[in-house]
Amino acid sequence: MPKISIIIPVYNTELYLKKCLDSIISQTYQDYEVIIVNDGSTDNSQNIISEYEKKYKDKIFAYYKENEGVSIARNFGIEKSKGEFITFVDSDDYIDKYMLEKMIKKANEDNFDMIICNLLYIYPNKKVIGKSNIKGDLLTKDQIKNNIINILPAMCGKLIKRNLYTNFKFKPNIWYEDVESYFRMYPKLNKIGYINQDLYFYPQRNDSITYTYNEKLYDIIYMWDGIIKEYKKNNYFDEYKSELEISVIRYSFATFVKRLAKTKNKKMFKLGVDKAIENVNNLFPNYKNNIYLKTFSIKNIYLKYFNKSFACILFHLINGISIKKNNKIIILRGKNND
């Protein structure tokens, strides 16, 4: 039985797939298996997969299925995997050759349920480290709860014990499925190990959902209803209420609004702002009293007093659009970055 199962969902990534697979095959730590799930690709991805499966038949195990989305592909991969730990790599990303070695070394230090590292966001003209805002390992459930809003909510760049996937499924047909799954998994974690190094490489492309308008953008605000229901069903809600509340606020008034602004669709932006405000008030009508908003900061002022005027300013800042006010033209220079 391999120590680690690496699960790679693939859909039409022929331009990037070889780099991804090469980064895995070249790992310094070799006690792993690779589960590739071709989710109905229509490009040359399957030929590349077959080439690598034939060449590395003791390491790579490939499966083809009809296209049903990344969540179902991940669930399929989990079912086929055998490792003690599971990690996910997207087929258009790649990893540092020492990633598995460093993660398993960390896992052996203590009985960690999850090991996390930093992500390196690679833009055409720059690189940005995506790191969790924690000081080190989280060794108790209280430490984990108190840092729920500080850990980068991505399934990639994490090594997770497979027993956490018992009776656990990624929710199908939604965007931001990483965030949704991550929050559902949180109450089950007892210890998290942290490696403060960027070991997972995440190229950013203009065709990503960050820059695309689609009704699925609303998943990032509407998914919380299901998360909250699950917390209540399992008697976690009261314990995690403050953390859930601030997360709903942040994802609704910051992440969702910012990404909607990047689509440059002003009509849809205004509609989305209304929906975000309505949804937050439905879920947490007293959110302004949240303990995480008591610390004075510009960010907290924005979140606590978010309104349509704040949203309008953000839209213009992100898109570098001028505003006419009192017959004067004010030029807002924004940066179109995450």
Structure described in brief:
By secondary structure, the chain is an alpha/beta fold. The protein has helices at residues 17-25, 45-55, 70-80, 99-107, 141-146, 177-185, 219-233, 237-262, 266-283, 298-304, 308-319; strands at 4-10, 32-39, 60-65, 85-88, 94-95, 114-122, 127-130, 158-161, 192-203, 323-325, 328-330. The protein is 39% helix and 18% strand.
Order of helices and strands: EHEHEHEEHEEHEHEHHHHHEE
What fraction strand? Answer: 15-25%
CATH topology of the largest domain: Spore Coat Polysaccharide Biosynthesis Protein SpsA, Chain A
Low-confidence stretches: 322-338
Largest sheet: 9 strands, mixed
CATH class descriptor name of the largest domain = Alpha Beta
Total domain modules: 2
State the separation between the terminal residues, measured CA to CA. 40 Å
Structural class: alpha/beta
Helix fraction, binned, reads 25-40%
Please count the helical segments. 11
CATH architecture of the largest domain: Alpha-Beta Complex
Note down, in words, how this protein is organized.
- This protein is 39% helix and 18% strand.
- With 338 residues, it is α/β, with parallel strands linked by helices.
- The strands form two sheets. Strands 1, 2, 3, 4, 5, 6, 7, 8 and 9 form a nine-stranded mixed β-sheet that branches. It has a two-stranded antiparallel ribbon with strand order 10-11.
- α6 runs parallel beside α7 and α7 packs antiparallel against α8.
- Mean pLDDT is 92; it is low at 322-338.
